[in-house]
Write a structure and sequence with these properties.
434 Repressor (Amino-terminal Domain); globular; mainly alpha; 6 helices; about 80 residues; about 0% strand
Length: about 80
């Protein structure tokens, strides 16, 4: 198993969420989600919330933003600014 750099990547792996399904539910491309998961690009606040909601729908449970983006994730700086 490949170690993923971000909390989002680890969350998706542990919960067996397929990137294509999360991307489709969140209204973004697999490529863009890949770049976010790898920490290559930053999600906008709106997209981060759509990813959170998509994961929640696919898991049929409430998912918090803290489960997806941690304080050590460099790509989550803009997202954290909104909820801190």
């Amino acid at each position: 198993m490949t170690t993923l750099a971000t909390k989002l990547g680890r969350f998706m792996t542990v919960n067996k969420l397929k990137p294509a399904k999360v991307a489709r539910e969140a209204g973004t491309s697999r490529q863009h989600l890949y770049r976010i998961r790898k920490g290559i690009t930053d999600p906008s606040f709106t997209l981060a919330m759509r990813i959170k909601d998509a994961c929640g729908r696919l898991l049929t449970r409430e998912v918090s933003i803290d489960e997806l983006f941690g304080p050590n994730d460099p790509q989550a700086l803009r997202v954290r600014d909104w909820w801190v």
